[in-house]
Protein 1
Amino acid sequence: MSSLLTSERLDAIEARLQSEGRVVAAELARDFDTSEDTIRRDLRALAAAGRCRRVYGGALPATPSRGPVSSRARLSAPAKDALGAALARLVLPGMTVFLDAGTTNLAAARALAATPDLGGATLVTHAPAIAAALVEARGASLVTIGGRVDPVIGAAIGARAFEEVSAIRPDLLLLGTCGLDPEGALSAHSIEDAVLKRRLAANSGAIATACDRGKIDTAGPFTVIDAATCDTLVVEAGLPPAIRARLAELGPEIIEVETGA
Amino acid sequence: MSSLLTSERLDAIEARLQSEGRVVAAELARDFDTSEDTIRRDLRALAAAGRCRRVYGGALPATPSRGPVSSRARLSAPAKDALGAALARLVLPGMTVFLDAGTTNLAAARALAATPDLGGATLVTHAPAIAAALVEARGASLVTIGGRVDPVIGAAIGARAFEEVSAIRPDLLLLGTCGLDPEGALSAHSIEDAVLKRRLAANSGAIATACDRGKIDTAGPFTVIDAATCDTLVVEAGLPPAIRARLAELGPEIIEVETGA
DNA sequence: CAGTATCAGGCGAGAATGCGCATAATCCTG
DNA sequence: CAGGATTATGCGCATTCTCGCCTGATACTG
């Protein structure tokens, strides 16, 4: 067992936190073959750097956006609902629409489920929570993409899902994203997720994505596509003029939504 | 065996509060395998933080009009929960388990999601609602089966799902059923569903199914398999002796569950 | 109004924690 | 390259936290 450098161990702990949604101090001490004191120091350091949230007995992901989906669901609900409703209005009768994972798209799915008649649209998704919401949708057929489900992303990813996704050519893709950086690139937290999103984007007739305030000028480690590739960008109304102007230059149609904030 | 961290339990209680609209202290104590005192302390803490409203015997959501939770049909919950919990106890570490569609299996999925550690089990399902619940499951990997989702059954059926299901050999199948007729045959409402169930049954190492009172001595139009093929039959305690005796003759192990009815 | 279920607070055991200190490893500088 | 400075680590100890149990008070039920 090769002993890890301290910063390596910190990275490993953070990675584990992301993949499992939680870490327990005692388990880490055992797995890294070190004392619990060292682990506690690590966790304190990570917490001080904002890379995790310290709790008694271990640690949890710092920002809910990196934790398991359940803990994110209740965050900033009004804004998400408004953005989701705007995305749902892009769905026209007869369309085939792919709903990517993410809480904003979950809000879109709820809005779709509340629509009286979707006019024979076909809705496709690889996210169980979104599929569960869309089962209620009226006047639409629902297709799910199977595969190994990543608990952090809350959707099927990996080879199996990639294969299935590759066979679909949606008219519209509602793309989930974890960040829109200043250069206009959309990014994801996981490589598997990014690869899947890229394939989806390549196969789709049109692409729409929604960015709440917190996602603008942030980036995950893996780039998906350039925002210029999108056709529609849904954002909250009342953004700073500088950012608003920069988004306008990217190319997509900008839809501003009043979130009441 | 890792148990839940305190703050995780608080989150889990709150999540359950959101999805089910209420929580009962005694049930939480049972599901989290802790004392009621601890649960009561948790509920007090949540209430103090404004995250729930404390009531005698349990708690209610803090915000009563919490949006689109309409999808949660709170039907004959106690019996379903008890049957579901009994099914969940059949899942042992390392197993590959297929969860068929149905409200009883959804209850089983919730019970599995509340289990602290499933010990590396692999959970497979074609029902979006069940998959959504299982995303929260700890210590297990989740695989979904994709395909066209039938809104009545609430699961992927048809050729695509059949093809995917055919490639899986679960150790245990939690079979959903819509009726157990007097001759001991399990049945389904749809031919597609029945075909899928038969294939699942043929591929599975063991089969378990739960029947509440309302399902005994009823039958759907399509026969799935004979109940004698099952290994475990979970029923409510307190059935009429005649029926109880007839079930005993079918062959499967009978597990009686106290539903408090 | 009696009986039962639930509740809040206190108590104590055990685990987790933070801190100071000693030691070993590593870095850095002359 | 040598020696001091910095850093990482492990250990002991006092403190804090959690949790199950107990007791008396309070809320539901019939």
Note: Residues 25-26, 36-37, 40-41, 44, 56-57 of chain B lie near DNA strand C (CB under 10 Å from a C1').
Protein 2
Amino acid sequence: MAVTRFAPSPTGYLHIGGARTALFDLIWAKNTGGKYILRMEDTDQSRNSPTAAKQVMDDLSWLGIKWDEGPEIGGPAGPYFQSQRLDIYNKYIQRLLDAGKAYYCFDTAEELERMRKEASDRKQNFLYRRPAKFPTLADVEAAKAQGRDVVVRFCMPDDEIIVNDIVRGEVRFNGKDLSDFIIQKSDGFPTYHLACVVDDELMGITHVIRGQEHLMNTPGHIVMQQAFGFKTPVYAHLSVIVSEGGGKMSKRERAKVLKAAIKKAQGLDKEKLAAIGGITIAEIDEFLSGDAMPDTPAIDAMAGYLKIELPEINIVDFFKSGFLPETLVNFIALLGYSPPIDKEIMTLQEIIDTFDPTRFNKTNCLFDRKKLVAFNMEHIKMLPEEKLLSRYKDFLKEVNSPAAKADDLLLKKVLKACAGARTLAEIDHKSRFLFTADDKVEYDQKDVEKVLLKNDGEGLAMLALLKEKLAALDKISEESIENLLRGIAEQKQIGLGKVAQPLRVAICGTTISLPIFESIEMLGINATITRMERTINEYSKK
RNA sequence: GCCCUCAUCGUCUAGUGGUUAGGACACCGGCUUCUCAAGCCGGCAGCAGGGGUUCGACUCCCCUUGAGGGUACCA
């Protein structure tokens, strides 16, 4: 029975790497019949936005990841926001201080910077080591009086520290290489290290599954656990997901693309851009020059204004691109892990049931969007009709599609006609013509040329003929339409394409759309004929 | 720089001393077709390099190279 936890720092939307960690925490717990806890690590007052925790929870929920204990649900080990547990941490920090395993210090930023520079000049890693004699409370008061910030550091021993990791095996560290790290910041908040160790114990966490970026922190955590007399949990450090350009796949990627676009944009109205992003011009300049980064909504808004596509990093990005949560879950679970069964397309339940913690692999992996698309197609095919419909409606609402207002019956027909589609966005695009006013259909000029005007307007002539025939049709059904169109093609000894394509352009404005018979049936005969007339009028005169 | 980790087709991976190195996605052909998809059939493609160990190394060891992570009063 494993008790696991996902412990995000609520700084914005949940991104793909975080989602994978969250997923494996869930899988591990559920596979062993254990418990899955969500804990918000909001100990950095400057980085945590008030809405971020909600966003992360929404994203987890969308993915179908439910926690047994945590925010909004509660539980015996709460509160589950670290910012609400300060008194607990203070008690533990005091214990370390009393035991002489932690000490106060009050270096200024400049002093620290100088020490770092000295170390790098000596071609050595910067190491903070405790003074021979720890500052007393009186020293602390004196330092405070001088206006110095006071922090608490934890004493690292010189011994070898062994981390037993499920993914990586035995990893050895030399305590001599590790700094006395800070456990309490000058604002009184604990750092990640302290809060994490204390909470894992208090919440009964047995298995810590997290990203590889935490591997170097682990020896420090283990020593601290020993100092407190805590049990050391089982560790599993997952390999990282890297993006095409190399480097960890993170939200920085999106900022990078946006920054490049802003710099490239000619005659850009910076004031307008700032207004749209809800930030100041100064903040934009700061963003362009340094490494300050606007928050996610601001980045999204500005990208929308500049009409550029940002790489998908956050879970919502994939939602908006028309991926199913089932697809993401399946795909993410296969990154750095391979199930013991010879099967790729799986439901979350199957992944949980067959989970084998020895089957993680150590290699960093690249996120292959094309494969994700292929997986999405499989999951669209696999999902029961009702479930797909509900996912599709969620999607339409999210992207503000006019189709969001359509009734279920029509949407079901659309979904059926789109069997084989790869994303929900594709389905939406292909069926937009159904939700466009008859006189608002936009014609793709290239398609018009190719299908209607070419060869002396043979397509247009076909349209005129079809209009008569369709108008004369007394029973409108997919079948009767098909019979009619096929009949004409046969009679004229031409391919069905010559008949269907002009019609398609007339009703959709483009040559890419749903199958033509279903299209007409769903659009309705009146609208079809209206659109044909409009097309004929529009292009006959030219 | 220093510390840590990793290394099988383009990508995700199977493989744990003896395999024709398997699958999936991508890609390339062909078939099918009212468009786009989908579907069906077929194909291309890999053990980073160099040393050992061994009767035998993709598999074990060492080095090189390459990649990633850490090096914060971020997590």
Note: The mean pLDDT of chain A is 91.
Protein 3
Amino acid sequence: MAVDLELAPKTKRPAGEPCCEPVVYPDVEREQAERMAKIAKALGDPVRLQLVDVLRKHAGKVCVCELVPLFDLSQPTVSHHLKVLRAAGIVGSERQGLWAYYYVIPDALEELSAWLS
Amino acid sequence: MAVDLELAPKTKRPAGEPCCEPVVYPDVEREQAERMAKIAKALGDPVRLQLVDVLRKHAGKVCVCELVPLFDLSQPTVSHHLKVLRAAGIVGSERQGLWAYYYVIPDALEELSAWLS
DNA sequence: GGTTCAAATAGATGGCTGTCGATCTGGAAC
DNA sequence: GTTCCAGATCGACAGCCATCTATTTGAACC
């Protein structure tokens, strides 16, 4: 977790050839790394990744009752995965009467996508 | 895990308006989702994400002894994270004498990157 | 051989995660 | 009000994960 970036401590290297003199720094700082890792972690499950895929393909909102039968999982488990995605800021939800609809939050994946490119 | 795609079971809907008649399918199939989720999961830790960032910026190989002091973590912990990245196929390693060098495997992130775009 | 050093592995531990069945919530319709 | 249904939440449990210290491996040098 803790990433200590202030001048990487010199590994004392008395004699012999140094293994690698120029110390290297991450261009991506701690906070950005934590933001992107949070997104990546939420996508790090095949079910959640497919959920996001479905929601992205259907630019509008998709009813939970449509999502559940796509997987060989119980309704509470799918609900749990949707909650994880919502906590990561990837999707949003909206109740309409008896049903709940989920949708992808635009730009939620943009930072990670840009870094990967 | 198991994603059952053969004709999503009709949720019986006797009377009243249907919540959502056209059932929706993921365009990303199970195997692709599992491949990409595996990559995303490996990137789902800030330390690993920064490690990949450093390795990507330095197109050549980077010595482990340079990576360890970048983080406020023990050497075995950094070694563990590198092992996770290697198991995911994101990085490769190479020993040279006393030291070990890591490098990013080209195209390892490409599928996920393409899907995110 | 013996010493030294870089890196990997082993083992332990506390915390998180994916899954389930059971229950709760709250809107719709009667 | 009562009933019914969609969805969320709860509680439990097994498995995984990030981290540490201690140890092992293996290459280099004396």
Note: Chain B touches chain A through 57 residues (CB under 8 Å).
